[in-house]
Design brief:
2 domains, alpha+beta, single chain, 6 strands, three-stranded antiparallel β-sheet, rod-shaped
Length: 151
């Protein structure tokens, strides 16, 4: 939100106040047409002010949402720990995961890996495969294996 927007809103409020003051102080001396003109100006100034205040409110809401999003990213970043080949989320000595290294590094999203057994893990979002220290080669036909390409 910039100072120009706030300044414009305050200026509109001042104009509305000044007009209402003129109307109330000189109601006896003004003719009916002048009173109607001043009231129309007052209503226009108040409408402008209402619109500008709505813009300020919308901008504040947008900024507050962005701040909340950034705070959440920082909180998660402080909880995430990389242990090759994937990430873990650690909260109060509790480990949650593992999470895809590619997805977190690329788009900062914690995508839970699917256990393919025997130390193999698969991401359902980016289709990456990971082998950890517990990986054990199984005897199977390589032509049916989803493990032909690994990250």
């Amino acid at each position: 939100m910039d100072l120009v927007t706030i300044s414009t809103a305050l200026s509109s409020l001042k104009s509305a106040y000044d007009l209402s003051k003129v109307i109330s102080e000189s109601a006896d001396s003004l003719e009916q047409a002048e009173i109607k003109l001043k009231l129309a100006e007052l209503m226009g100034a108040l409408a402008d002010t209402k619109s500008q205040i709505s813009d300020i409110k919308l901008e504040l809401i947008t900024k507050n949402e962005k701040i909340q999003e950034l705070e959440n990213q920082i909180r998660i970043q402080n909880q995430v720990k990389f242990e090759q080949p994937y990430y873990w989320k650690i909260t109060n000595d509790n480990r949650d995961g593992p999470y895809c290294q590619k997805c977190y590094d690329d788009i900062k999203k914690l995508i839970r890996l699917q256990d393919e057994k025997h130390g193999s893990w698969r991401c359902l979002v980016c289709s990456s495969y990971f082998r950890d220290k517990n990986y054990k080669e199984e005897s199977f036909d390589d032509s049916d294996s989803p493990y032909n390409s690994y990250v």
